[in-house]
Design brief:
By secondary structure, the chain is of the alpha/beta class. The chain contains eleven helices and eleven strands. α9 packs antiparallel against α11. The longest helix is centred in the N-terminal third of the chain and has 24 residues.
Amino acid sequence: MLNWSVQPLFLFSLSFLAVRADGEVNNTQAAAAKQIRAWQDQYNNYIFEALANRTSGCTYDKLQYRREWSSLSPKQRSAYTTAVECLQSKPNLISNIRVPGARTRFDDVVAAHIFQAPYIHFSGIFLHWHRYYTYLYDKLLRTECGYTGPQPYWDWTLTYADPLASKIFSGTADSMGSNGIYIPNRNGTFTNAFNRPRTIPAATGGGCVTSGPFQNYTVNLGPASYEPRVGSGTGLDYNPRCLKRDVSLEFSHNLKPTDVVALIGANAALEAFSGFFETRDGLHASGHFTIGGDPGNDGFVSAGDPIFYLHHGQVDRLWTIWQALGGGGRFGEVFGTSTAFNRPPSPNVTLDYELQYEVLSEPVTMRSVDSTIDGPFCYIYI
Protein backbone atom coordinates (compact mmCIF):
# COMPACT_ATOMS: atom_id res chain seq x y z
CA MET A 1 0.00 0.00 0.00
CA LEU A 2 1.40 3.38 -0.97
CA ASN A 3 1.69 6.08 1.67
CA TRP A 4 0.18 9.32 0.35
CA SER A 5 0.58 11.36 3.52
CA VAL A 6 2.23 14.76 3.18
CA GLN A 7 5.21 15.13 5.43
CA PRO A 8 4.67 18.04 7.83
CA LEU A 9 6.75 21.03 6.93
CA PHE A 10 8.75 20.93 10.14
CA LEU A 11 10.15 17.44 9.39
CA PHE A 12 12.37 18.79 6.67
CA SER A 13 12.60 22.44 7.68
CA LEU A 14 15.64 21.82 9.88
CA SER A 15 17.68 20.99 6.80
CA PHE A 16 16.77 24.44 5.45
CA LEU A 17 18.52 26.11 8.35
CA ALA A 18 21.98 24.86 7.50
CA VAL A 19 24.07 27.85 6.47
CA ARG A 20 27.76 27.56 5.72
CA ALA A 21 29.96 29.54 8.06
CA ASP A 22 31.84 31.14 5.17
CA GLY A 23 28.64 32.83 4.00
CA GLU A 24 28.41 30.91 0.74
CA VAL A 25 25.10 29.71 -0.64
CA ASN A 26 23.58 27.12 1.69
CA ASN A 27 21.67 23.96 0.89
CA THR A 28 18.24 25.44 1.58
CA GLN A 29 16.96 25.35 -1.98
CA ALA A 30 18.56 21.98 -2.75
CA ALA A 31 16.71 20.43 0.20
CA ALA A 32 13.44 21.97 -0.92
CA ALA A 33 13.97 20.81 -4.52
CA LYS A 34 14.56 17.28 -3.22
CA GLN A 35 11.25 17.41 -1.33
CA ILE A 36 9.40 18.58 -4.45
CA ARG A 37 10.88 15.69 -6.42
CA ALA A 38 9.70 13.26 -3.75
CA TRP A 39 6.19 14.68 -3.94
CA GLN A 40 6.35 14.49 -7.73
CA ASP A 41 7.20 10.78 -7.46
CA GLN A 42 4.27 10.21 -5.08
CA TYR A 43 1.95 12.01 -7.49
CA ASN A 44 3.15 9.99 -10.49
CA ASN A 45 2.69 6.74 -8.56
CA TYR A 46 -0.80 7.79 -7.53
CA ILE A 47 -1.79 8.43 -11.15
CA PHE A 48 -0.31 5.17 -12.44
CA GLU A 49 -1.98 3.17 -9.67
CA ALA A 50 -5.33 4.89 -10.36
CA LEU A 51 -5.11 3.91 -14.04
CA ALA A 52 -3.84 0.37 -13.47
CA ASN A 53 -7.19 -1.39 -13.81
CA ARG A 54 -9.08 1.03 -16.04
CA THR A 55 -10.49 -0.25 -19.32
CA SER A 56 -12.43 2.85 -20.42
CA GLY A 57 -12.22 6.62 -20.21
CA CYS A 58 -8.71 7.78 -19.40
CA THR A 59 -6.49 4.71 -19.57
CA TYR A 60 -2.76 4.28 -19.40
CA ASP A 61 -2.37 3.97 -23.17
CA LYS A 62 -4.19 7.29 -23.74
CA LEU A 63 -2.21 9.26 -21.18
CA GLN A 64 -0.58 12.48 -22.40
CA TYR A 65 2.63 13.56 -20.72
CA ARG A 66 3.17 17.23 -19.96
CA ARG A 67 6.86 18.08 -19.75
CA GLU A 68 8.99 20.93 -18.44
CA TRP A 69 10.07 23.30 -21.21
CA SER A 70 13.80 22.75 -20.78
CA SER A 71 13.37 18.96 -21.00
CA LEU A 72 12.00 19.21 -24.55
CA SER A 73 14.38 18.84 -27.45
CA PRO A 74 15.09 21.94 -29.57
CA LYS A 75 12.95 20.38 -32.32
CA GLN A 76 10.04 19.88 -29.92
CA ARG A 77 10.30 23.43 -28.60
CA SER A 78 10.34 24.85 -32.12
CA ALA A 79 7.35 22.73 -33.09
CA TYR A 80 5.44 24.13 -30.14
CA THR A 81 6.13 27.80 -30.93
CA THR A 82 5.36 27.17 -34.60
CA ALA A 83 1.92 25.90 -33.55
CA VAL A 84 1.38 28.99 -31.38
CA GLU A 85 2.33 31.24 -34.31
CA CYS A 86 -0.13 29.29 -36.44
CA LEU A 87 -2.90 30.07 -33.95
CA GLN A 88 -1.85 33.72 -34.10
CA SER A 89 -2.31 33.69 -37.88
CA LYS A 90 -5.79 32.12 -38.06
CA PRO A 91 -8.85 34.40 -38.16
CA ASN A 92 -10.91 34.97 -35.01
CA LEU A 93 -14.25 33.27 -34.47
CA ILE A 94 -15.54 35.61 -31.78
CA SER A 95 -17.74 38.41 -33.06
CA ASN A 96 -16.05 41.76 -33.61
CA ILE A 97 -19.19 43.35 -32.25
CA ARG A 98 -18.44 41.64 -28.95
CA VAL A 99 -14.64 41.99 -29.19
CA PRO A 100 -13.79 44.81 -31.64
CA GLY A 101 -10.05 44.18 -31.34
CA ALA A 102 -9.99 40.47 -32.10
CA ARG A 103 -8.18 39.54 -35.29
CA THR A 104 -6.90 36.00 -34.68
CA ARG A 105 -7.83 32.68 -33.13
CA PHE A 106 -5.24 33.44 -30.46
CA ASP A 107 -7.22 36.60 -29.68
CA ASP A 108 -10.27 34.39 -29.08
CA VAL A 109 -8.31 32.70 -26.29
CA VAL A 110 -7.14 36.00 -24.81
CA ALA A 111 -10.64 37.49 -24.95
CA ALA A 112 -12.04 34.59 -22.92
CA HIS A 113 -9.58 35.45 -20.14
CA ILE A 114 -10.44 39.15 -20.30
CA PHE A 115 -14.17 38.47 -19.98
CA GLN A 116 -13.75 36.01 -17.13
CA ALA A 117 -10.97 37.78 -15.21
CA PRO A 118 -13.27 39.34 -12.54
CA TYR A 119 -14.52 35.87 -11.63
CA ILE A 120 -11.52 33.55 -12.01
CA HIS A 121 -9.06 35.30 -9.70
CA PHE A 122 -9.19 35.53 -5.90
CA SER A 123 -12.22 33.25 -5.94
CA GLY A 124 -13.22 29.63 -5.56
CA ILE A 125 -12.91 28.91 -9.29
CA PHE A 126 -9.32 30.11 -9.89
CA LEU A 127 -7.69 26.68 -10.16
CA HIS A 128 -10.55 24.87 -11.88
CA TRP A 129 -11.11 27.54 -14.53
CA HIS A 130 -7.46 27.81 -15.49
CA ARG A 131 -7.04 24.03 -15.66
CA TYR A 132 -9.66 23.74 -18.37
CA TYR A 133 -8.47 26.94 -20.06
CA THR A 134 -4.94 25.59 -20.56
CA TYR A 135 -6.45 22.32 -21.77
CA LEU A 136 -8.55 24.18 -24.36
CA TYR A 137 -5.46 26.06 -25.53
CA ASP A 138 -3.55 22.80 -25.92
CA LYS A 139 -6.51 21.33 -27.79
CA LEU A 140 -6.57 24.26 -30.24
CA LEU A 141 -2.86 23.85 -30.95
CA ARG A 142 -3.48 20.20 -31.77
CA THR A 143 -6.76 20.35 -33.68
CA GLU A 144 -6.23 23.59 -35.60
CA CYS A 145 -2.45 23.81 -35.94
CA GLY A 146 -1.29 20.20 -36.03
CA TYR A 147 0.79 20.16 -32.86
CA THR A 148 1.60 16.62 -31.70
CA GLY A 149 4.20 17.14 -29.00
CA PRO A 150 3.92 17.48 -25.22
CA GLN A 151 2.13 20.44 -23.69
CA PRO A 152 4.99 22.17 -21.85
CA TYR A 153 5.07 23.84 -18.47
CA TRP A 154 7.58 26.24 -16.94
CA ASP A 155 9.02 25.04 -13.65
CA TRP A 156 10.10 28.40 -12.23
CA THR A 157 12.02 26.70 -9.41
CA LEU A 158 14.63 25.77 -12.03
CA THR A 159 15.08 29.35 -13.27
CA TYR A 160 14.35 31.58 -10.27
CA ALA A 161 17.99 32.64 -9.80
CA ASP A 162 18.29 34.00 -13.35
CA PRO A 163 15.40 33.40 -15.75
CA LEU A 164 17.26 35.25 -18.49
CA ALA A 165 19.79 32.41 -18.56
CA SER A 166 17.03 29.84 -19.14
CA LYS A 167 15.78 28.23 -22.33
CA ILE A 168 12.53 30.17 -21.84
CA PHE A 169 13.88 33.67 -22.47
CA SER A 170 17.11 32.96 -24.39
CA GLY A 171 15.80 34.46 -27.63
CA THR A 172 17.01 31.51 -29.70
CA ALA A 173 14.82 29.85 -32.31
CA ASP A 174 13.84 27.14 -29.81
CA SER A 175 12.98 29.52 -26.95
CA MET A 176 9.75 31.34 -26.08
CA GLY A 177 11.33 34.52 -27.43
CA SER A 178 13.66 37.01 -25.79
CA ASN A 179 13.24 39.50 -23.02
CA GLY A 180 12.17 42.95 -24.17
CA ILE A 181 14.91 45.32 -25.25
CA TYR A 182 16.23 47.22 -22.25
CA ILE A 183 14.83 50.73 -21.80
CA PRO A 184 16.70 52.66 -19.08
CA ASN A 185 15.39 55.36 -16.74
CA ARG A 186 11.81 54.13 -16.71
CA ASN A 187 9.20 54.48 -14.02
CA GLY A 188 7.37 51.40 -12.85
CA THR A 189 3.97 50.40 -14.24
CA PHE A 190 1.00 51.46 -12.15
CA THR A 191 -1.66 48.78 -12.48
CA ASN A 192 -5.06 48.39 -10.89
CA ALA A 193 -6.54 44.96 -11.49
CA PHE A 194 -9.28 43.65 -9.18
CA ASN A 195 -9.17 46.91 -7.18
CA ARG A 196 -5.66 46.09 -5.99
CA PRO A 197 -3.56 49.08 -7.11
CA ARG A 198 0.18 48.63 -7.16
CA THR A 199 3.26 49.76 -9.06
CA ILE A 200 5.33 47.06 -10.73
CA PRO A 201 8.99 48.16 -10.63
CA ALA A 202 10.85 48.55 -13.90
CA ALA A 203 13.17 45.59 -14.45
CA THR A 204 15.61 44.23 -17.05
CA GLY A 205 13.77 44.96 -20.29
CA GLY A 206 10.63 46.97 -20.96
CA GLY A 207 10.71 47.13 -24.74
CA CYS A 208 9.71 44.86 -27.59
CA VAL A 209 10.78 41.24 -27.89
CA THR A 210 13.50 41.39 -30.54
CA SER A 211 14.68 37.82 -31.13
CA GLY A 212 13.35 34.30 -31.30
CA PRO A 213 9.69 33.37 -31.65
CA PHE A 214 7.09 36.11 -31.23
CA GLN A 215 9.39 38.99 -32.23
CA ASN A 216 6.89 39.66 -35.03
CA TYR A 217 3.75 38.81 -33.06
CA THR A 218 1.18 41.60 -32.85
CA VAL A 219 -0.64 42.00 -29.54
CA ASN A 220 -4.13 43.20 -30.46
CA LEU A 221 -6.02 43.39 -27.16
CA GLY A 222 -5.46 45.43 -24.01
CA PRO A 223 -4.34 47.03 -21.86
CA ALA A 224 -7.15 46.78 -19.32
CA SER A 225 -5.28 47.33 -16.04
CA TYR A 226 -2.91 50.19 -16.87
CA GLU A 227 -2.42 53.07 -19.28
CA PRO A 228 -2.53 53.78 -22.13
CA ARG A 229 -5.94 52.17 -22.46
CA VAL A 230 -7.77 52.66 -25.74
CA GLY A 231 -11.43 52.86 -26.69
CA SER A 232 -13.70 51.55 -23.96
CA GLY A 233 -10.76 50.82 -21.66
CA THR A 234 -11.90 47.19 -21.25
CA GLY A 235 -8.99 45.72 -23.21
CA LEU A 236 -11.34 44.48 -25.93
CA ASP A 237 -10.69 47.23 -28.49
CA TYR A 238 -8.17 47.03 -31.33
CA ASN A 239 -4.74 48.18 -30.20
CA PRO A 240 -2.01 46.58 -32.34
CA ARG A 241 1.50 46.72 -30.85
CA CYS A 242 4.57 44.59 -30.27
CA LEU A 243 4.92 42.07 -27.47
CA LYS A 244 6.89 43.66 -24.63
CA ARG A 245 8.63 41.89 -21.76
CA ASP A 246 10.42 43.13 -18.69
CA VAL A 247 11.88 40.06 -16.95
CA SER A 248 12.10 40.73 -13.22
CA LEU A 249 14.71 39.12 -10.98
CA GLU A 250 12.92 40.63 -7.99
CA PHE A 251 9.76 38.64 -8.66
CA SER A 252 11.56 35.52 -9.87
CA HIS A 253 13.08 35.22 -6.39
CA ASN A 254 9.55 34.57 -5.08
CA LEU A 255 9.51 31.36 -7.14
CA LYS A 256 12.11 29.37 -5.24
CA PRO A 257 11.82 25.68 -4.30
CA THR A 258 11.21 26.74 -0.69
CA ASP A 259 8.22 28.80 -1.82
CA VAL A 260 6.71 25.75 -3.53
CA VAL A 261 7.39 23.60 -0.45
CA ALA A 262 5.54 26.16 1.67
CA LEU A 263 2.61 26.07 -0.75
CA ILE A 264 2.23 22.30 -0.83
CA GLY A 265 3.42 21.36 2.63
CA ALA A 266 1.61 23.89 4.77
CA ASN A 267 -1.86 24.11 3.21
CA ALA A 268 -4.06 21.08 3.77
CA ALA A 269 -7.36 22.64 2.60
CA LEU A 270 -8.11 23.86 -0.92
CA GLU A 271 -9.10 27.33 0.30
CA ALA A 272 -5.74 27.76 2.03
CA PHE A 273 -3.83 26.29 -0.91
CA SER A 274 -5.52 28.51 -3.49
CA GLY A 275 -5.25 31.55 -1.23
CA PHE A 276 -1.52 30.97 -0.74
CA PHE A 277 -1.08 30.77 -4.50
CA GLU A 278 -2.80 34.13 -4.94
CA THR A 279 -1.16 36.20 -2.22
CA ARG A 280 0.03 39.61 -3.35
CA ASP A 281 3.59 38.50 -4.13
CA GLY A 282 2.81 34.79 -4.23
CA LEU A 283 3.67 32.19 -6.81
CA HIS A 284 0.87 33.05 -9.24
CA ALA A 285 1.44 36.82 -9.30
CA SER A 286 5.23 36.49 -9.22
CA GLY A 287 5.21 34.19 -12.23
CA HIS A 288 3.31 36.81 -14.23
CA PHE A 289 5.42 39.70 -12.99
CA THR A 290 8.62 37.79 -13.71
CA ILE A 291 7.55 37.86 -17.37
CA GLY A 292 6.40 41.46 -17.02
CA GLY A 293 5.94 43.95 -19.80
CA ASP A 294 2.82 44.34 -21.91
CA PRO A 295 0.55 42.44 -21.67
CA GLY A 296 2.37 40.34 -19.05
CA ASN A 297 1.70 42.79 -16.22
CA ASP A 298 -2.01 43.04 -17.01
CA GLY A 299 -4.24 40.89 -14.79
CA PHE A 300 -6.89 40.79 -17.51
CA VAL A 301 -4.82 40.52 -20.70
CA SER A 302 -1.74 38.59 -19.51
CA ALA A 303 -2.90 35.60 -21.58
CA GLY A 304 -1.71 37.62 -24.59
CA ASP A 305 1.89 36.57 -23.85
CA PRO A 306 2.37 32.94 -24.94
CA ILE A 307 4.46 32.20 -21.85
CA PHE A 308 1.23 32.59 -19.86
CA TYR A 309 0.23 29.03 -20.76
CA LEU A 310 3.54 27.54 -19.57
CA HIS A 311 3.23 29.49 -16.33
CA HIS A 312 -0.30 28.22 -15.74
CA GLY A 313 0.82 24.73 -16.66
CA GLN A 314 3.09 24.92 -13.62
CA VAL A 315 0.21 26.25 -11.50
CA ASP A 316 -1.90 23.29 -12.57
CA ARG A 317 1.00 20.88 -12.01
CA LEU A 318 1.42 21.98 -8.41
CA TRP A 319 -2.32 21.74 -7.80
CA THR A 320 -2.55 18.21 -9.15
CA ILE A 321 0.48 17.14 -7.09
CA TRP A 322 -1.21 18.62 -4.03
CA GLN A 323 -4.44 16.80 -4.90
CA ALA A 324 -2.71 13.43 -5.23
CA LEU A 325 -0.92 13.80 -1.90
CA GLY A 326 -4.29 13.74 -0.18
CA GLY A 327 -4.80 10.11 -1.10
CA GLY A 328 -8.04 10.89 -2.92
CA GLY A 329 -9.47 13.08 -0.18
CA ARG A 330 -8.58 16.32 -1.92
CA PHE A 331 -10.61 15.65 -5.05
CA GLY A 332 -14.11 17.08 -5.14
CA GLU A 333 -13.19 19.88 -2.73
CA VAL A 334 -14.59 23.37 -3.38
CA PHE A 335 -14.77 26.63 -1.45
CA GLY A 336 -15.79 30.25 -1.74
CA THR A 337 -17.73 32.14 -4.37
CA SER A 338 -17.27 32.95 -8.05
CA THR A 339 -16.30 36.63 -7.82
CA ALA A 340 -12.94 38.15 -6.93
CA PHE A 341 -12.93 38.85 -3.18
CA ASN A 342 -16.67 38.12 -3.37
CA ARG A 343 -17.26 41.54 -4.93
CA PRO A 344 -20.05 41.76 -5.88
CA PRO A 345 -21.34 39.09 -3.50
CA SER A 346 -22.15 35.81 -5.23
CA PRO A 347 -23.40 32.39 -4.10
CA ASN A 348 -20.98 29.75 -2.89
CA VAL A 349 -19.72 27.56 -5.71
CA THR A 350 -20.54 23.87 -5.86
CA LEU A 351 -19.24 21.04 -8.01
CA ASP A 352 -22.16 21.77 -10.34
CA TYR A 353 -21.12 25.39 -10.89
CA GLU A 354 -20.63 26.02 -14.62
CA LEU A 355 -17.39 27.59 -15.86
CA GLN A 356 -17.61 29.90 -18.90
CA TYR A 357 -15.19 30.07 -21.85
CA GLU A 358 -16.85 32.22 -24.52
CA VAL A 359 -16.34 30.78 -28.05
CA LEU A 360 -13.70 28.31 -26.89
CA SER A 361 -16.10 25.83 -25.35
CA GLU A 362 -19.55 25.14 -24.02
CA PRO A 363 -19.77 25.67 -20.24
CA VAL A 364 -18.35 22.86 -18.10
CA THR A 365 -18.93 22.03 -14.45
CA MET A 366 -16.37 22.25 -11.69
CA ARG A 367 -16.90 18.53 -11.14
CA SER A 368 -15.87 17.66 -14.68
CA VAL A 369 -12.47 19.41 -14.42
CA ASP A 370 -11.53 18.33 -10.91
CA SER A 371 -9.13 15.53 -11.89
CA THR A 372 -6.60 15.39 -14.73
CA ILE A 373 -7.47 11.74 -15.42
CA ASP A 374 -11.25 12.11 -15.51
CA GLY A 375 -13.85 14.01 -17.51
CA PRO A 376 -12.27 15.44 -20.66
CA PHE A 377 -8.73 15.00 -19.36
CA CYS A 378 -6.09 12.30 -19.59
CA TYR A 379 -2.72 13.83 -18.77
CA ILE A 380 0.06 13.72 -16.23
CA TYR A 381 2.97 16.03 -15.40
CA ILE A 382 6.42 14.50 -15.42
